[in-house]
Amino acid sequence: MNAQKQQNVTIKGTKDGLTLHLDDSCSFEQLLHDLEGMLSSKQYIGEDSPVIEVSVKVGNRFINKEQEQQLKIIIEKNRHLIIAAIESDVITKEEALRLKRETEIVSEAKIIRSGQVLKVQGDLLLIGDVNPGGIVIASGNIFILGALKGIAHAGFEGNREAVIAASVMKPSQLRISDALNRAPDHVPDEGNEMECAYIDEEGQMVIERLQQLSHLRPNLSRFEGGI
User: Considering the entire predicted model, what is its pTM?
Assistant: First the structure.
């Protein structure tokens, strides 16, 4: 199916269905009018057509729930179309703040002693030790420039891609998301190489040299460069 354009709407056929590109500079009312005109043409959608999935891309336009419903009514009503996704390049301030908290790097320079708990949103970079009985918890990754001899829980909100790294890996317990590893049967390699724990493809917690992490979690390169 070839690309067609009528004013502020572009429709393209793909192997997965249709993609609608909606201009983000016109008014939403004009956009709805043009969309209705586009989809009403028998040239694009016939009455006997099978159900087709539609991806809607709205560019730099924020679409609220009411506007999503308006698009859904126009696209799906009597047209054998169903919306698979509505994609926008902008988000709300609340969503942006939530993402900032989740990706923030919290840096602490201290020793976490027995009975103490350090819990953060985002990624934790701890410069110091976690003594036996101490606990560190993060919604993201945990990096410890020191000895981990207590408990570390990364990805506590369900992030199974999170990792735990320490200069000396001798934990009493490791947790990543809902995966638990009590007192790992693991003797750290001799030397000063950091080690990391992560969940592999089989859902098992594995401890490796930190250098392996660049291949397993390439998005973590920003941390490794500074550790």
Answer: 0.57
203: left (phi over 0), alpha (psi -120 to 50) or beta: left
CA distance 29 to 26: 8
3-state secondary structure of 13: strand
pLDDT in tens, the chain (227 residues): 444 444 688 888 888 788 888 888 888 888 888 888 887 765 555 556 678 888 899 988 888 889 989 998 888 886 678 888 888 888 777 777 766 666 678 999 999 999 999 999 989 999 999 999 999 999 999 999 999 999 999 999 999 999 999 999 999 999 999 998 865 555 555 556 789 999 988 888 989 888 777 777 776 654 444 44
